[in-house]
Amino acid sequence: MEPGAVFKHARGKTVTELEGVLLTNLVLNTAQAHFNEDAMSRTDLGGTIVFGGVVAAVVIGLATQDTAEHAVRELRLDAMRFKAPVRHGDTLYAYTEVVEKSEHGTVHFRHRGVNQHGAEVFECERWVQLKHRPPGARRAH
């Protein structure tokens, strides 16, 4: 995990009504944009969209398989940007850039979510403390 490295995570996830409706209801988000197809069909969006919290969870979850296996703790999640609408049936893929890493094991990631058409739909910054060997420590054989 060297700064400047960018990689695509292996898995994608199609957003279904389970995530788009059930999870949104469980957090009591009743915004028209997520549940009123009639009203939303008359807007510039042309229909309902998936709750941003679900989009963030899917993208970060896809990235976690490669960025948190050796995590000691999550430190910070910041600068969330929802760049394009996500709809039921869209498939999301995650990309990660290693922005910075410290000698103490803290890694600053930039995660991006892209849909099946290649449109970037989400971006965030995340800091994770990973297990590490102190500088100068030797590996046991």
Topology:
Elements: E1 6-14, H1 17-26, H2 32-35, H3 37-40, H4 52-67, E2 71-82, E3 91-101, E4 106-115, E5 120-130
Antiparallel strand pairs: 1-3, 2-5, 3-4, 4-5
Helical/strand content category: alpha+beta
Q: Give the helices and strands as they follow along the chain.
A: EHHHHEEEE
**What general form does the structure show?**
elongated
The main sheet comes to: 5 strands, antiparallel
> Order of strands in the sheet with the most strands?
1-3-4-5-2
Report how far apart the termini are.
23 Å
What's the total count of β strands? 5
Uncertain runs are: none
Number of helical runs?
Answer: 4
A few lines on this structure:
With 141 residues, the protein is an alpha+beta fold.
What are the defining features of this structure?
alpha+beta, 4 helices, 141 residues, five-stranded antiparallel sheet, elongated
3D structure, described in words:
It is built from 4 helices and 5 strands; from the N terminus they run βααααββββ. 24% of the residues lie in helices and 38% in strands. By secondary structure, the chain is α+β, with helices and mostly antiparallel strands. Strands 1-3-4-5-2 form a 5-stranded antiparallel beta sheet, with helices on one face.
